[in-house]
Design goal:
The protein is globular and about 65 Å long. It contains 20 helices and 12 strands. The chain folds into 2 domains: 234 residues, Rossmann fold (3-Layer(aba) Sandwich); 188 residues, Glycogen Phosphorylase B (Rossmann fold, 3-Layer(aba) Sandwich), CATH 3.40.50. By secondary structure, it is of the alpha/beta class. The strands form 2 sheets. The chain has a 6-stranded parallel β-sheet, sandwiched between helices. Strands 9-8-7-10-11-12 form a 6-stranded parallel β-sheet. Helix 16 crosses helix 20.
């Protein structure tokens, strides 16, 4: 009789987007390299989660939302071996508490291990919170491995040929307005209002640019934190023929590769753009709104219509964007400082830390879900309603699940991206084998015991 495969469980909000793309290389490694059984569950679907008995549980982050913290506390209490990465990994000293703990307001350590993007991030975190030295490790940014591995991108349709295409990466302006209390706790009321004012300015600016450049297609992708609401950036231009508003089904990788220039108020997409060789513009000149966003040091920062007209003319004439090019050394330094490594092997570094546990060199945890009978019944009923009768519920949870979580789409993404991973692993087999065996040198603290 064949030995049952070991199981790894990933728990996330969606089967698309940033956190999914952090998990994807790890899923491939577990499934193809280790021959494990891989499960992927929605953070809102407790019933699907507690039906499984995984050997390892992974979340891309445990503090990005109140539901993340709630599920992370359940996993920790239930005694599973539990590890995570970091979604927003460019830590800043003036915001280190928010970046380390987020919605985990009681600052409870919930994981056996968490990796961060860089040594700089690690040092900032343990300087403020020395107790985290036992669980934090440096792996590099997992979410950026894809830029060295994936070559199969989805084409975004055009209703006619355009000279150039510009991606407008949306900011969480809607969330700043709706969740004022939360963002006040992060930025303060004055700065939050300034951000909203800048959002209106950006909206008016784009309204003029889009109309003045009908030979450019503007691709607008909303921020996932705005939960599907119309991006403020699209408010004045949504009905124009040279504007396309992108559904969340499209990966940010697809959006960037289909574009010639990326514009945003402030966004981590700037870093993604640089890794794909695309220029970026931050649509703001107000320094106190940019001071806590290090990425703007590598972008051309302007909200001047005249300056942007010049830039778009350069773009259409296939000229380098001069104000962006002069910042190349700053970008190189930022990429190195923030992502740690840019060789596509950060997920191997992450797995290297897990190897002693996987190979039985550390005590094995036998988790058991700590949920009551009533909680199980409620979870089951919610699962049935969410999956089979979604029209009977108007909750944002049900809406999010149906819009953003689909195992069918996950498997389709595998058919597109796994061949690229196959080729990458074949080409780099020696390096992958060696890195997995040797990168982790301090494994004695992996166990939470």
């Amino acid at each position: 009789m064949a030995t049952p495969k070991r199981k790894v469980l990933f728990i996330e909000w969606a089967t698309q987007g940033r956190d999914f793309e952090i998990d994807f290389p790890l899923m491939y490694f577990f499934e193809k390299y280790l021959d494990w059984e891989v499960h992927y569950c929605c953070v809102f679907d407790l019933w699907s989660i507690i039906r499984l008995k995984p050997d390892i549980v992974i979340m891309s982050n445990t503090m990005g939302g109140s539901i993340n913290v709630k599920i992370a506390k359940l996993i920790s209490k239930s005694g599973f071996f539990f590890v995570s990465h970091t979604s927003e990994g460019y830590f800043r000293e003036n915001a280190i508490s928010q970046m380390v703990w987020g919605h985990n307001t009681d600052q409870q350590v919930l994981v056996d291990m968490q990796t961060v993007w860089s040594n700089n991030a690690y040092q900032l975190a343990i300087k403020k919170f020395p107790n985290l030295s036992s669980v934090l490790r440096v792996s590099g940014s997992l979410g950026h491995d894809k830029y060295q591995i994936i070559s199969s991108f989805v084409s975004i349709p055009q209703n006619k040929p355009y000279k150039k295409r510009i991606l407008i990466a949306g900011y969480t302006f809607n969330a700043h307005r709706i969740e004022a209390a939360r963002f006040n706790s992060i930025f303060g009321d004055k700065k939050r209002r300034q951000i909203l004012d800048q959002g209106e300015k950006v909206s008016q600016l784009l309204s003029k640019l889009v109309r003045e450049h009908p030979d450019i297609q503007f691709i607008i992708k909303g921020h996932p934190g705005d939960r599907g609401k119309l991006p403020l950036e699209a408010k004045e231009v949504k009905d124009l023929p040279n504007v396309i508003i992108i559904h969340q089904d499209y990966s940010i990788v697809d959006c960037i590769t289909n574009s010639d220039l990326i514009m945003c108020f402030r966004s981590s997409i700037q870093l993604e753009a640089w890794l794909l060789g695309k220029p970026s513009i931050a649509l703001c000149e107000t320094q106190n709104l940019l001071s806590d966003s290090a990425l703007t040091q590598g972008s051309y920062c302007t909200d001047s219509l005249e300056a942007l007209d010049v830039t778009l003319t350069q773009l259409k004439e296939n000229q380098p964007i001069s104000e962006f090019e002069i910042l190349s050394s700053q970008r190189d330094a930022l990429i190195s400082k923030m992502t740690g490594y840019s060789d596509g092997l950060n997920h191997i570094r992450f797995m290297s830390y897990l190897r002693p546990y996987i190979e039985g060199q550390l005590p094995q945890k036998k988790g058991r879900w700590k949920v009551t009978k009533v909680q199980k019944i409620v979870a089951f009923l919610r699962h049935i309603r969410m999956v089979y009768f979604p029209w009977t519920s108007k909750t944002s949870t049900t809406s999010h699940f149906h819009q953003n979580f689909s195992l069918k789409k996950l498997n389709h993404k595998k058919t597109i991206w796994y061949p690229d991973f196959d080729l990458f692993y074949e080409t780099n087999k020696k390096n992958i084998d060696q890195l997995y065996r040797s990168y982790s040198t301090k494994v004695e603290n992996l166990s939470s015991e």
